[in-house]
Amino acid sequence: MLRRHKKIVLQQTGQTGIGEMKFNVKGTLFALATVAWVSTLAGCTTAYQASGATGGYKDRQIDDQTLHVEFRGNGYTTRDTVHKYFMYRCAELTQQHGFKYFMIIPTALTGALAPTDNLVGSRGFDRSMMRKVHSAAPIVIYSGGVGSVSYPSDAGDIRMFNDDAVMPAKITGWDAAEIVDQLGTFVHSNGKTPAALPMGWVFEPGHPKVRAQDLLPSAPKSSVVSGA
Prior knowledge:
It is a single chain. The chain is globular. By secondary structure, the protein is an alpha+beta fold. Mean pLDDT is 75; it is low at 5-14, 30-42 and 115-146. β8 and β9 (210-211) form a beta hairpin. The chain has one domain (42-215). Helices cover 32% and strands 18% of the residues. The chain has helices at 2-13, 15-41, 79-96, 107-110, 176-188; strands at 56-61, 66-72, 101-104, 125-126, 131-132, 153-161, 171-175, 201-203, 210-211. 22% of the residues are buried. A seven-stranded antiparallel beta sheet has the order 1-2-6-3-7-8-9. It is built from five helices and nine strands. The longest helix is centred in the N-terminal third of the chain and has 27 residues, at 15-41. α3 packs across α5.
């Protein structure tokens, strides 16, 4: 009689109910994790990082002295931040390749297309639909309308060189060490610590480099007439 009672209790408890409870718990945890992940992406500016879901840098080598560099932000990253991250990446790569300076090659010399905000930053991601293609869970990165989203980006080919470079003409470039030093706190604080981008330099054959700003034309000084 006792054994029969135990059997009835087990049948009433049922393994199916326990399985359903475990499934519901897992489903709830997955849903909460997904919401938390989406919430983390939404409202976050792009950090200085390799290209990912929220943007970042990517680059490729063209030859021993030339690289193609890109940095793309998300809907919460300002153009100024993206430009500083781009310049910092150019400077960082210049040092890694053993050079001191770099110049951004004008598109007229390379025939490259100017970057636009409508370009897709990575395969499998459709910005117009605000979600990952072939993914069951949409990734919302902006709560406004599609037309109001801006994806700032900066891209270009850079030419790296040292003091012994052979230059047939005057060019404008940047000192990689200056940029890394001056923008370091800005980059490593994810844009929270203000920093200004260093001025460029003008390199001329047979002459020491000078600040580009020093070569800009200025208005003549107005003469002060006594009694005027």
